[in-house]
């Protein structure tokens, strides 16, 4: 049976499942909140709207899994392992798709292969897990192989229908979608479910700051997403620019960026988001007004604020002789 047929099976509908004795271990070899981040959760709203298990906005309509993202393509290229979340048998897999962000040129090529390179594992009790967007040529298991929780399956990639390197992991029970953060499907807004399939405590992510750095000019978004935007500055650099890369932005959020130097604060800038943005960057800076910048340490601090509450932060520093 082909991989696409397994995917179709997993997308079939049925009644919500109860966790019973099934649990999931963390499926990525990374540190949550540092080298990887949860960007999207399952959409638990059956209507045309979208809401995650907290009734928050960290999802989108009809999203059927949990997205664990990396900071940049540079991290993806370095290699971040995807791990089996539970014991089971490899039911199907796909490899060979390129690691290219979705665009108009390749959209037709990924039709019916939106998962990209991936693996499906069958577990006891009618449970399945599906791992999508893996890196081409890294899948290290074969169909029919028995795996245990923590077995490497491959690496996070950029294959299939995606705009950033991440693992999309879906969970099914007897073919029905299950949100691992709310397996019984009983959600009360303001008091999210205390049940979870995860065997560790995973804090909720309402967005965050992925990276920050300095450069002599405003970098392009492509270089920021690639992880190559941080550039060294010379004492006579035409400007000092502090850039920040963030995700899960909502209209009205404030991205506060502050640069301090040897003599104190150089600039403070509040960038207000005018619309929801899944991923975005902002930059601030100051032009050189003298022959060169004062020698010493320069620090950049970025804080993402939502209704005065901090939901993410990052910092960068450099020193001029």
Automatic annotation (TrEMBL):
Residues 1-19 form the signal peptide. InterPro entries: Cell_wall_metabolism_enzyme, Dup_hybrid_motif, M23ase_b-sheet_dom. It comes from Litorivita pollutaquae. This is Peptidase M24. Keywords: Signal. Residues 62-180 form the M23ase beta-sheet core domain. The keyword Protein biosynthesis does not apply. The lineage of its organism: Bacteria, Pseudomonadati, Pseudomonadota, Alphaproteobacteria, Rhodobacterales. GO terms for molecular function: metalloendopeptidase activity. It comes from the Bacteria. Pfam families: Peptidase_M23 (PF01551).
């Amino acid at each position: 049976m082909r991989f696409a047929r397994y995917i179709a099976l997993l997308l079939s509908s049925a009644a919500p499942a109860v966790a019973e004795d099934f649990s999931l271990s963390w499926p990525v070899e990374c540190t949550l909140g540092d080298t990887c981040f949860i960007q999207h959760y399952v959409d638990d709203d059956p209507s045309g709207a979208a809401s995650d298990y907290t009734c928050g906005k960290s999802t989108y309509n009809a999203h059927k899994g949990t997205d664990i993202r990396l900071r940049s393509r540079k991290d993806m290229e370095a290699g971040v392992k995807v791990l089996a979340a539970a014991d089971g048998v490899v039911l199907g897999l796909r490899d060979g798709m390129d690691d290219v962000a979705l665009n108009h040129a390749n959209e037709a090529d990924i039709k019916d292969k939106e998962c990209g390179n991936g693996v499906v594992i069958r577990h006891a009790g009618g449970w399945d897990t599906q791992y999508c967007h893996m890196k081409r040529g890294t899948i290290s298991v074969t169909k029919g192989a028995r795996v245990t929780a923590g077995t490497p399956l491959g690496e996070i990639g950029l294959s299939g229908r995606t705009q950033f390197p991440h693992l999309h992991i879906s969970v099914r029970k007897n073919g029905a979608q299950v949100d691992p953060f709310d397996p019984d499907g009983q959600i009360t807004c303001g008091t999210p479910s205390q049940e979870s399939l995860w065997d560790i405590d995973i804090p909720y992510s309402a967005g965050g700051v992925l990276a920050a750095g300095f450069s002599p000019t405003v970098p392009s978004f492509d270089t920021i997403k690639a992880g190559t935007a941080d550039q060294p500055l010379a004492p006579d650099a035409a400007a000092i620019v502090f850039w920040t890369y963030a995700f899960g932005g909502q209209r009205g959020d404030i991205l506060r960026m502050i640069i301090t130097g040897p003599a104190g604060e150089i600039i403070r800038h509040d960038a207000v988001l005018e619309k929801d943005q899944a991923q975005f960057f902002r930059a601030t800076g100051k032009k050189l007004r003298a022959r060169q910048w004062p020698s010493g340490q320069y620090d950049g601090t970025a804080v993402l604020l939502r209704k005065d509450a901090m939901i993410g932060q990052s910092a960068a520093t450099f020193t001029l002789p």
